[in-house]
């Protein structure tokens, strides 16, 4: 546009300076190519993730919802009634009403990086619950955030095993920073996916309908769209593998043949079979989850699991 032109900038200079551009160029320049999972969630990616949560193979969402329902009374007793609830990464906020009811919450503070997505979800919630005070905060919950003034103690909500998408050191940093944000006497209600049979895990991340594959491949579409990329997407396929020694599912995009392409004018070549590592999803035994709590300054107060030991719902105290 005119303004860019006057400032001596072109559309691609602007793109070059975005976090996404920096992460992609840096990640594709490494010997082992990698792009952080947070970049999955453009509009299409967020829609595809919503679809994933409804897949028969993807057990975490419905299992966690079942746990929130089954333990509503205990949650109220342990986390406290009438306390402001702060949700980290609210997204579409489908589980939120369950916690709000369990805790008889009157003030709800959703934090989400996508302002638009957040606004849409909140309009729905506001219509359903006219008495609820909603104070949305558009921002990145992995960065230090200033909360509006609230009468504590506060309850943090971090469902969906999003913590699993962080490596152990970052998970500890993040949970510690939640403690600082929430302050004294806080509680954290957190969902953490459990270790289990490798087959079950790999199927959950490689469903028969191919939705997870599409979610993974959408990252390449996003690069082509937003970063002037020339990636031949057909060459790539989705792969999900359980790494037992690290305790995580890894998602990769595998090149089916030698391929070369450019992103923002920079040239990249990949060999047949070489991958771009796009996501880690760490799984924790109940004991490991409690160690994680203690390592990040929280005291584990309670946890529940489902009859098939699939998922853990935890309450921690500051
Ligand atoms: C958002 N996050 C907790 C999901 C997970 O299970 O790690 C993302 C996801 N990736 C593939 N399927 C779901």
TrEMBL record:
Gene Ontology biological-process annotations: methylation
The Swiss-Prot or TrEMBL record annotates one GO molecular function as: methyltransferase activity
Report domain Histidine-specific methyltransferase SAM-dependent positions.
20-316
Alphabetized UniProt keyword annotations: Methyltransferase, Transferase
A UniProt-annotated Pfam family: Methyltransf_33
The answer on whether this UniProt entry bears the keyword DNA repair reads: no
Q: What is this protein called?
A: Dimethylhistidine N-methyltransferase
What organism is this sequence from?
Novosphingobium hassiacum
């Amino acid at each position: 546009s005119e303004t860019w032109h006057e400032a001596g900038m072109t559309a691609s200079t602007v793109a070059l300076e975005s976090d996404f551009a920096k992460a992609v160029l840096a990640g594709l320049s490494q010997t082992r190519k990698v792009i952080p999972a947070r970049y999955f969630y453009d509009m299409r990616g967020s829609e595809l993730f919503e679809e994933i949560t409804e897949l028969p193979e993807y057990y975490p969402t419905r299992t966690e919802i079942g746990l929130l329902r089954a333990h509503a009374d205990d949650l109220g007793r342990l986390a406290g009634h009438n306390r402001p609830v702060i949700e980290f990464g609210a997204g579409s906020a489908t589980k939120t009403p369950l916690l709000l009811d369990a805790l008889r919450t009157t003030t709800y503070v959703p934090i989400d990086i996508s302002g638009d997505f957040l606004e849409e979800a909140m309009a729905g919630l506001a219509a359903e619950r006219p008495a609820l005070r909603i104070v949305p905060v558009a921002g990145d919950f992995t960065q230090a955030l200033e909360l509006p003034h609230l009468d504590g103690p506060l309850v943090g909500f971090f469902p969906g095993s999003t913590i699993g998408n962080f490596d152990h050191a970052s998970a500890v940093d993040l949970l510690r920073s939640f403690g600082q944000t929430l302050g004294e006497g806080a509680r954290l209600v957190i969902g953490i996916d459990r270790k289990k049979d490798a087959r079950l895990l790999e199927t959950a991340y490689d469903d028969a309908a191919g939705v997870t594959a599409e979610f993974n491949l959408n990252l390449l579409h996003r690069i082509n769209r937003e970063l002037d990329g020339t990636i031949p997407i057909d060459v790539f396929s989705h792969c999900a593998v359980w790494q037992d020694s690290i305790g995580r599912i890894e998602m990769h995009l595998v090149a089916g043949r030698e391929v070369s392409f450019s992103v923002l004018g920079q040239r990249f070549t990949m060999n047949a079979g070489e991958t771009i590592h796009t996501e880690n999803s760490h799984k924790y035994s109940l004991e490991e989850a409690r160690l994680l709590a203690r390592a990040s300054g929280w005291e584990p107060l309670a946890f529940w699991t489902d009859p098939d030991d699939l998922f853990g719902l935890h309450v921690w105290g500051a």
